[in-house]
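Example S7 (structure tokens).
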């Protein structure tokens, strides 16, 4: 008899951002006259930069000519893009070979798919609060999840101690949802921990381009020993506005071996079997991100989001609301005023000010009583939202 994957029955009915979408849709249907400013899901608002759209237009033209048409591409990604990504890492002092880089349709897919390489009875260690996809993808496979507490006391940057356990460890820095960023010493502790125990770190670097402090690591491979224990996931979604275009990359070091198997070779085997690669047009667009012209243009956009983050943190400071993040990160993590629960504050902001944020409780138990705002709105909307927030408080 057919058996379904019963682990799905243990999941919440809908994914966090789907649930928020439903609530906002209900509110706007009931109050069509109200304007709503969206600072919930971390979706960008600035368009793709000209270097990217020109490269994509050129690639579209190539696809329309028999002589330059491209059919199936390499599952791992075209060499022209993987080489550019290696050069990007070289600028951070990290040496990679193109064979260690896998182009994907985004970090979220690879973070979930990478679990194919690991047995189901591994213990997974996840910080709480956390990006919900880490937890849900493991629950879907029935894998036991252990949590490490990220709290106000440790500035939402937990470190391993003698009691910490875990075979697969998730670290996101700059962090989603808290905006907290590990320094080198903090990441070194995690790398040492993983190496001592033969564990593997899944390092989510999706927000690395928001780091402006040159002392902070943007890649885990800037930490000695990381190539022996870490897989890094990165994305052009937030860096270059690819949330709708879809392109990211994952680094699996050639020397990363567990159970006598090369994880790089396993991932290649997995991808060549289950994935047909990212489209040629999108990869040409992604390549343009890494050109000097593309870098100048995407950095100008990131600067706009950084200024938005400053507008938010300045308003919160004026209002006396505790917060972290917003520096080296597009996310601002605040404590709900008046001791409100996360979802009560969500309702209060939506009905009182027409602002959509993300309730901290949606990211885990330690997120209860906290709330996340993003800097990805337009600057006008960010200013308007903060004015509404200040007016609401009067
Ligand atoms: C978020 O808002 O947490 C992110 O946009 C979600 C994602 O990148 O999938």
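Recovered sequence:
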């Amino acid at each position: 008899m057919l058996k379904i994957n019963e682990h799905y029955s243990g999941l919440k009915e809908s994914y966090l951002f789907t649930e928020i979408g439903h609530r906002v849709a209900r509110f706007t249907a009931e109050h069509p006259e109200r304007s709503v400013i969206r600072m919930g899901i971390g979706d960008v608002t600035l368009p793709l930069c000209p270097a990217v759209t020109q490269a994509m237009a050129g690639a579209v033209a190539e696809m329309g000519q028999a002589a330059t048409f491209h059919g199936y591409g390499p599952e791992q990604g075209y060499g022209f893009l993987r080489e550019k990504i290696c050069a990007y890492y070289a600028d951070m002092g990290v040496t990679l070979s193109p064979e260690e880089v896998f182009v994907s349709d985004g970090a979220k897919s690879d973070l979930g798919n990478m679990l194919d390489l690991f047995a189901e009875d591994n213990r997974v260690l996840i910080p709480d609060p956390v990006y919900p996809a880490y937890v849900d993808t493991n629950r879907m496979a029935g894998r036991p999840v252990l949590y490490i507490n990220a709290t106000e006391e440790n500035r939402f940057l937990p470190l391993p101690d003698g009691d910490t356990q875990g075979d697969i460890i998730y670290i996101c820095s700059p962090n989603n949802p808290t905006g907290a960023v590990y320094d080198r010493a903090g990441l070194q502790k995690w790398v040492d921990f993983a190496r001592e125990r033969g564990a593997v770190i899944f390092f989510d670097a999706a927000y690395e381009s928001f780091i402006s402090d040159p002392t902070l690591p943007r890649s885990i491979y800037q930490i000695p020993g990381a190539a022996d224990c870490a897989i890094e996931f990165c994305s052009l979604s937030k860096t270059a506005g690819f949330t709708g275009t879809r392109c990211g990359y994952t680094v699996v070091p050639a020397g990363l071996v567990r159970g006598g198997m090369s994880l790089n070779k396993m991932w290649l085997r997995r991808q060549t079997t289950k994935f047909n690669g990212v489209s040629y047009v999108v990869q040409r667009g992604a390549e343009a991100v890494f050109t000097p012209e593309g870098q100048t243009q995407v950095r100008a956009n990131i600067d706009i989001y950084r200024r938005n983050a400053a507008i938010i943190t300045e308003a919160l400071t004026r209002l006396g609301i505790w917060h972290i993040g917003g520096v080296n990160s597009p996310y601002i993590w605040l404590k709900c005023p008046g001791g409100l629960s996360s979802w009560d504050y969500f309702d209060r902001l939506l009905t009182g000010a027409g602002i959509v944020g993300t309730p901290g409780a949606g990211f885990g138990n330690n997120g209860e009583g906290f709330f996340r705002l993003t800097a990805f709105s337009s600057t006008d909307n960010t200013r308007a939202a903060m004015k509404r927030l200040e007016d609401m408080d009067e």
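Notes on this example. The longest strand covers residues 230-235.
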